[in-house]
């Protein structure tokens, strides 16, 4: 099978996913995978080893948003010319882009099947991109196959009218921070649990609840110390950040910074009020780090209590504090989870994900 991955995004999880799928394809000799990538992507050096398989297309930058309109025609022509030449069996969109719903029909008109990975089926509270969610998911209803990285997202799409037989619910694969630094060498846990919140700060991610949980834990001898690392408005959180002694890194993080943070913390916390699934959990698992989380949405498919992390017994600050305290006071549990993450990594691998996608497309 010849498969073209399409990723017109510029940064974030879609680049990790594209790179991981390219690497995984090397282990599947019956598969020829190519990638069409935005020339504005922020990790060009990471794709250099695959230069022979990668074609770039000019999209647009945040500094020149009118390019979304002005550059579309030329990008469409280049993509369709490329596809006529390569004649793939399937085009797989790694993450929908504002252009991809407009590209689906002309791609299918070439006799090429179109599949898409839908990451979010409903808008997230406080996410400035939420207004685009319905447009981006619209391609699911015209695609030959829609892949989701959780059953939660698949269920939402089916409830919205997508035929169940055109949905393939899978799992979110582990993703390594870049540049790759090899196996993480963890030190025996001692002292307060080094806890990391990683990612953009939006209302649905529950950072306020996390800080309230940390405040409850500081009333006695501290069992955990928290780092919040990511871009977002934290003005209303300032008093709680100060009261809990939380370290704040409020900016968009480079790949190196993300890797360094994962290497210097013991666990990742996801206090999300709702979630489709979590790329941050996938980064944590690849680094051997347990995840502490609320049992919501697709998170409960990724975080199994006592095996890949610790789930809070409820959805408030007290419940989250209980879960953090449980992990902080049981270093044997922390080590057991880390060892299990390593032992079960293949079940969450890019190779396993790609194999299951190809098997479905070949059926």
From TrEMBL:
<protein>
    <recommendedName>
        <fullName>Glycosyltransferase subfamily 4-like N-terminal domain-containing protein</fullName>
    </recommendedName>
</protein>
<dbReference type="GO" id="GO:0016757">
    <property type="term" value="F:glycosyltransferase activity"/>
</dbReference>
<dbReference type="Pfam" id="PF13692">
    <property type="entry name" value="Glyco_trans_1_4"/>
</dbReference>
<dbReference type="InterPro" id="IPR028098">
    <property type="entry name" value="Glyco_trans_4-like_N"/>
</dbReference>
<feature type="domain" description="Glycosyltransferase subfamily 4-like N-terminal">
    <location>
        <begin position="33"/>
        <end position="167"/>
    </location>
</feature>
<dbReference type="InterPro" id="IPR050194">
    <property type="entry name" value="Glycosyltransferase_grp1"/>
</dbReference>
<dbReference type="Pfam" id="PF13439">
    <property type="entry name" value="Glyco_transf_4"/>
</dbReference>
């Amino acid at each position: 099978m010849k498969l073209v991955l399409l990723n017109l995004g510029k940064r974030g999880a879609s680049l990790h996913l594209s790179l991981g799928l390219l690497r995984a394809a090397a282990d599947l000799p019956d598969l020829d995978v190519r990638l069409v990538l935005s020339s504005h992507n922020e990790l060009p050096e990471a794709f250099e080893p695959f230069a022979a398989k990668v074609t770039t297309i000019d999209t647009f930058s945040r500094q020149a948003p009118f390019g979304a309109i002005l550059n579309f025609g030329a990008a469409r022509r280049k993509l369709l010319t490329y596809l006529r030449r390569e004649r793939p069996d399937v085009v797989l969109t790694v993450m929908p882009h504002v252009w991809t719903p407009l590209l689906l029909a002309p791609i299918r008109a070439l006799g090429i099947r179109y599949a898409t990975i839908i990451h979010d089926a409903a808008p997230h509270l406080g996410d400035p991109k939420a207004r685009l969610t319905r447009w981006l998911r619209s391609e699911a209803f015209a695609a030959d196959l829609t892949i989701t990285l959780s059953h939660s997202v698949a269920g939402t799409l089916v409830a919205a009218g997508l035929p169940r037989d055109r949905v393939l619910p899978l799992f979110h694969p582990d993703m390594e921070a870049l540049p790759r630094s090899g196996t993480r060498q963890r030190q025996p846990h001692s002292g307060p649990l080094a806890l990391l919140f990683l990612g953009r700060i939006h209302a649905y991610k529950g950072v306020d609840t996390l800080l309230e949980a940390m405040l409850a834990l500081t009333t006695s001898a501290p069992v955990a110390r928290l780092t919040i690392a990511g871009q977002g408005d934290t003005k209303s959180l300032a008093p709680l950040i100060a009261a809990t002694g939380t370290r704040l890194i409020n900016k968009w993080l480079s790949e190196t910074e993300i890797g360094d943070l994962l290497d210097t913390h013991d666990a990742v916390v996801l206090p999300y009020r709702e979630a489709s699934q979590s790329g941050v959990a996938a980064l944590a698992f690849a680094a051997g780090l347990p995840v502490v989380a609320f049992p919501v949405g697709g998170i409960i498919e990724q975080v199994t209590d006592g095996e890949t992390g610790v789930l809070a017994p409820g959805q408030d600050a007290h419940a989250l504090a209980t879960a953090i305290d449980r992990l902080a006071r049981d270093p044997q549990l922390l080590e057991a989870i880390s060892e299990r993450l390593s032992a079960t990594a293949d079940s969450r691998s890019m190779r396993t994900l790609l194999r299951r996608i190809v098997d479905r497309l070949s059926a």
